């Protein structure tokens, strides 16, 4: 167990966790909503520090991140638990895990060991993914500090339900923030992610970009009957344009039936294409479709001349037409970080 970095002590040894926006009030001996933190004698402890359930070296396109050193290799680490418990989670085996039972199946990988693995495998950086990394704040923070000292980059793949206090701890050590924007109404967020107020997520996305200068890419998994309302998609795309800028990459991915939503349909290709068109009509320059291998909307095109810049298939780069950050054909600057 590892003592939590941020919590409030209330009356009668009750604790209020400050790590995610649920801000759970936890009685002595009890755990918060995510089940990864426990009140022990009036102090909050993480039960999953350095407990890794999933580890893999993979291309950054799997996050997905398309405008941050395309083709680079990243060490990807995941643990257990989630603060959303989405009914259609694709990683439900670890996100919805019974922590007490499954913790014995994890591997202890210290921050030092994680950095050593990343360097040995010639990775560009370390990504915390597979389950919600915010729940592993202390571990990811300690590892990120060491990673930065060794010249590695860092990435969070997150649902964005982090508190400003936590963001301020992580901010100096995170380079990229690949964040879910699961819906754009309280009703839809409640159904898809078990929260009602999503406005705090929007504030944190802006904070990551404008206060901490992180590279931001946004993903929306389009789930039939849950978050595919056209009015919501218009509002979401408009918010990205107005608040994050037209050069912010937006990934719209195909829902694949999982877990408690295994009875649902796959997202149709026309529905994905319609959502993408909404984003482009609003002025977004880089709107991608995911989980549709071979679709042309996996590729990056120059917003000025329309030429193919990066051709992708199954997260592999087949064709690359950038020189630095510029289009090879018309010299248009392309938003992001490229080699």
Write the layout of secondary structure elements.
Layout: E1 2-3, E2 7-9, E3 15-17, E4 25-26, E5 37-40, E6 43-46, E7 51-52, E8 54-59, E9 73-78, H1 92-95, H2 99-102, E10 107-108, H3 111-120, E11 125-128, H4 137-149, E12 153-158, H5 164-170, E13 176-180, H6 186-193, H7 199-210, E14 215-222, H8 230-244, E15 250-254, H9 269-282, E16 287-290, E17 300-301, E18 308-313, E19 316-320, E20 322-323, E21 326-327
Parallel strand pairs: 9-11, 11-12, 12-13, 13-14, 14-15, 15-16
Antiparallel strand pairs: 1-6, 2-3, 3-4, 5-6, 7-10, 8-9, 17-18, 18-19, 20-21
Helix pairs in contact: 3-4, 8-9
Give the total of beta strands. 21
Distance from first to last alpha carbon: 41 Å
Strand order of the largest sheet: 8-9-11-12-13-14-15-16
- The secondary-structure element order is EEEEEEEEEHHEHEHEHEHHEHEHEEEEEE
Counted up, domains total: 2
Largest sheet geometry: 8 strands, mixed
Please state the average pLDDT score: 97
Give the helix level as a range of percent: 25-40%
Give the C-level CATH assignment of the largest domain.
Answer: Alpha Beta
Textual characterization of the structure:
This protein has 339 residues and is an alpha/beta fold. It folds into two domains: 2-46, no CATH class; 51-327, TIM Barrel (Alpha-Beta Barrel), CATH 3.20.20. The protein is built from nine helices and 21 strands. The chain has helices spanning 92-95, 99-102, 111-120, 137-149, 164-170, 186-193, 199-210, 230-244, 269-282, and strands at 2-3, 7-9, 15-17, 25-26, 37-40, 43-46, 51-52, 54-59, 73-78, 107-108, 125-128, 153-158, 176-180, 215-222, 250-254, 287-290, 300-301, 308-313, 316-320, 322-323, 326-327. Helix 3 crosses helix 4 (137-149) and helix 8 packs parallel to helix 9 (269-282). The chain is globular, with a radius of gyration of 20 Å. 46% of the residues are buried.
